[in-house]
Specification:
Elements (H helix, E strand, L loop, with lengths): L5 E9 L5 E5 L2 E5 L7 E9 L3 E11 L25 H18 L5 H7 E5 L10 E8 L5 E6 L6 E3 L12 H14 L14 E8 L6 E7 L7 H8 L5 E8 L11 E7 L3 E5 L2 E5 L9 H15 L6 E5 L5 H7 L4 E6 L2 H13 L5 E5 L2 H12 L5 E4 L8 H10 L3 E6 L2 H12 L3 E9 L9 E8 L4
Parallel strand pairs: 3-5, 6-21, 11-12, 16-17, 16-19, 17-18, 19-20
Antiparallel strand pairs: 1-2, 1-4, 2-3, 4-5, 7-8, 7-10, 8-9, 10-11, 12-13, 14-15, 20-22, 21-22
Helix pairs in contact: 1-10, 3-4, 5-6, 8-9
This protein binds S-adenosylmethionine.
């Protein structure tokens, strides 16, 4: 096989990026937009020794799992990878991914996994789940103002079909339309990356799903937005509008938000709830993007933690303290550790607005704070919750957790491969995998979140 060859391939698996994988002459081919069960014609784009990349040319026989994407730009937009796959099949694919990693990388015996696996929590309505959207603003090929998304691996803006993303809130559409109309009328220029000229770079929209409150933040390459009072008047008539701000970003950078936030109208934050915990969210705050599934994810973590009201809980990699505060009302005390100082400031503020006084938060690396406090102060835990970034827990964090001998470790993970690696270590050091539940936080993407309960085995 060589470049430009046309081949016929049956798709048998899917890669981590959602690309279909099929074999020709024993050689694996990765084909974007092909899904398990498709028979496709593909054109070879690049060949390595044992694998290659091919472009989908024709679907010769569609997979029974294939469906029409709701968004007509689903293939070009980097946001969704598997929108053309039936939702039940997406869930089965994600559950399988978690199981395969635990079996193969985690060396969990099949009978242990079968007893522990409790399935995957999907969404009843897997669209319009995102409470946050960030749209680059620019011009389309004809020179019209547009909001859209970047085509895969480029900074070329593809206009959003009808200014609407199927995963975002319905309010995003009238907000974007109002902003673009305003910019046209008052000759406010969109930012141009190449010349570093123009003003409006991005529009951030957030919605509190529990409160209906809306936030709009325009990221600008300047100190002020001209005629901002006119825009504020127009946007504030949209039901739920609570906060209109500008974020000043004059840097030549791919980082979207600038740190200087100026309020144009209303408050500089919106309020939302996860369960009965209240959060103040400002333009720069981290906040989970799928609130419906977040509540289910944290509910699972809470259930697995098995709290009676007396326990000392450590919540490592705690972000703005969402899990910590969710657990605090049912625990003796909770200690959160997080590397980002602003997130810890938000966590403390969120504890205060909820009258939660049994949560303490520490800024620092989990791999330094936890071992340091264990060695110096002999801190203990009944339950440890970890929700690390994709790379999983540092070895020293795992070692310290084992030394602390909590009864239960609740591991919340966004990467099944590093989860499996860490489960393997914990199983080899006195803990057993008792319960596993996957949660689909991001329908139509390849991502999957997992919650595991590891319980201490007596006598080990
Ligand atoms: C997957 S997020 C979890 C956030 C939080 N549990 C939540 O649900 O909102 C991982 C968090 O770990 C933080 N982080 C990354 N590396 C860290 C480290 N070495 N020590 C402590 N926190 C870290 C990140 O800033 C991020 O907030």
């Amino acid at each position: 096989m060589q470049k430009n060859d046309l081949v016929t391939v049956r798709i048998e698996d899917m890669g981590t990026g959602g690309e279909g994988i099929g074999k020709v002459d024993g050689c694996a081919l990765f084909i974007k937009d092909a899904i398990i069960g498709d028979l496709v014609e593909a054109k070879i784009m690049k060949m390595k020794k044992n694998y290659g990349y091919a472009r989908l040319m024709n679907i010769l026989a569609p997979s029974p799992a294939r469906q029409n994407a709701r968004c007509k730009e689903a293939r070009r937009c980097g946001g969704c990878q598997i929108q053309e796959m039936d939702y039940r099949q997406q869930l089965a694919f994600k559950k399988g991914k978690v199981e395969n990693n635990l079996l193969r990388l985690g060396a969990v015996p099949k009978e242990v996994l079968d007893a522990a696996m409790e399935g995957i929590i999907g969404m009843d309505e897997p669209f319009r789940y995102r409470n946050k959207a960030q749209y680059p603003i620019g011009r389309d090929r004809e020179g019209h103002l547009t909001a859209g998304f970047y085509a895969g691996r480029t900074h070329q803006i593809i206009p959003l079909p009808d200014m609407d993303c199927a995963l975002g809130a319905e309010e995003n559409q009238p907000i974007l339309q109002e902003i673009l109309a305003f910019m046209g009328e008052y000759h406010v220029q969109p930012y141009d990356e190449e010349s570093h000229a123009g003003l409006v770079r991005h529009v951030l929209i957030r919605k509190g799903f529990a409160t209906g409150e809306l936030m709009v933040c325009l990221v600008i390459n300047g100190d002020a937005l001209p005629h901002s009072d006119v825009l504020a008047e127009r946007l504030s008539s949209i039901q739920g509008m609570t906060s209109i701000t500008c974020s000043v970003n004059r840097e030549k950078t791919n980082v979207i938000m600038g740190k200087d936030i100026k309020t144009i109208w209303g408050q500089d934050y919106i309020t939302d709830y996860i369960g009965d915990v209240k959060f103040h969210i400002s333009p720069l705050s981290f906040y989970q993007v799928n609130p419906v599934q977040t509540e289910r994810l944290y509910g699972t973590a809470l259930e697995f933690a098995g709290l009676t009201g007396k326990e000392t809980v450590w919540d490592l990699y705690c972000g703005i303290g969402t899990i910590s505060l969710f657990l605090a009302r049912r625990a003796g005390c909770v200690c959160g550790v997080e590397i980002v100082p602003q997130a810890i400031r938000d966590a403390k503020n969120n504890a205060a607005i909820n009258d939660i006084s049994n949560a303490r938060f520490y800024v620092g690396k989990a791999e330094e704070v936890l071992p340091g406090m264990y060695e110096k102060e002999g801190v203990q835990a009944d339950v440890i919750v970890v929700d690390p970034p994709r790379k999983g827990c540092e070895q020293i964090v795992l070692e310290t957790m084992v030394k602390m001998q909590p009864d239960r470790i609740v591991y919340v993970s966004c990467d099944p491969a590093t989860l499996a690696r860490d489960v393997k270590y914990l199983r080899g050091n006195g803990y057993e995998l008792d319960r596993v539940k996957a949660v689909d936080m991001f329908p139509h993407t390849v991502h999957v979140e997992t919650v595991c309960l590891m319980s201490r085995v007596e006598g080990k």
